[in-house]
Write a structure and sequence with these properties.
- The protein is mainly α and about 200 residues long.
- The chain folds into two domains: about 5-105, Four Helix Bundle (Hemerythrin (Met), subunit A), CATH 1.20.120; about 110-190, no CATH class.
- Helix content is about 75%, strand content about 0%.
- It has eight helices and no strands.
- The protein has helices spanning about 5-30, 35-55, 60-70, 80-130, 140-155, 160-165, 170-185, 190.
- α1 (about 5-30) packs antiparallel against α2 and α2 (about 35-55) packs antiparallel against α3.
- The longest helix has about 45 residues, at about 80-130.
- It is elongated.
- The relative contact order is 0.12.
């Protein structure tokens, strides 16, 4: 396992923050609520922090948008009402921000989807070879960890499993394995939540 960043966490966190915050900010702008500017600034700060901590280069673009928004708080022309200027600037930045966030998440989403397909293949191969026998008395987290170990050590699975382990963290891989086993076994949600 060479990769430690949880791409699943990053993807889900940024995706949900973007969906929630951008919708709220657009609503506030439509209602001429000046708190839209503060809300957008807070959102940009959070996204920039997530991108920086996870070494996504788009954090610089997000920082630039944040600075542009901050600069809009001081209208250059006294004839333009400051509130209107801030809301217009916030509104103008939103499409660029969402595009930047989307572009940052695209490679992550591709890695996750590629890994998901490979794990589906590995699990199907293991089922076809009668190597998977889940029983409800077995701790599901231990079972999923055992499967990962099997995939990384067994000659039939090793090549593909190693490929996945180079692109995702161990926790991400175990979550994807668990989801796939859940689909195959139709394990109850309470069993799956043993992680």
């Amino acid at each position: 396992m060479t990769h430690t960043t949880s791409y699943l966490d990053v993807f889900q966190c940024v995706n949900s923050k973007t969906t929630h915050s951008v919708g709220k900010i657009k609503y506030l702008i439509e209602n001429d609520d000046l708190s839209a500017s503060d809300e957008l600034y807070r959102f940009l700060n959070e996204i920039e922090d997530i991108f920086r901590r996870n070494q996504l280069s788009e954090f610089t673009a997000i920082a630039t948008y944040r600075i542009q928004l901050l600069a809009s708080r001081w209208a250059l022309d006294q004839r333009i009402p400051q509130k209107r200027f801030q809301l217009d600037k916030a509104s103008a930045l939103i499409p660029n921000i969402t595009k930047t966030v989307s572009n940052a998440l695209k490679p992550i989403e591709n890695k996750i989807n590629t890994a998901r397909k490979i794990i589906q293949e590995l699990v199907c191969m293991a089922y076809d070879s009668n190597m998977i026998h889940y029983q409800e008395k077995i701790n599901f987290a231990d079972f999923s960890n055992g499967l990962l170990t099997l995939f990384l050590t067994h000659d039939s699975f090793k090549e593909k499993a190693t490929l996945v382990s180079k692109s995702l963290s161990k926790n991400d891989i175990i979550i994807l394995i668990s989801e796939e086993i859940h689909q195959k076994e139709k394990i109850s949600p309470s069993e799956k939540s043993l992680f």
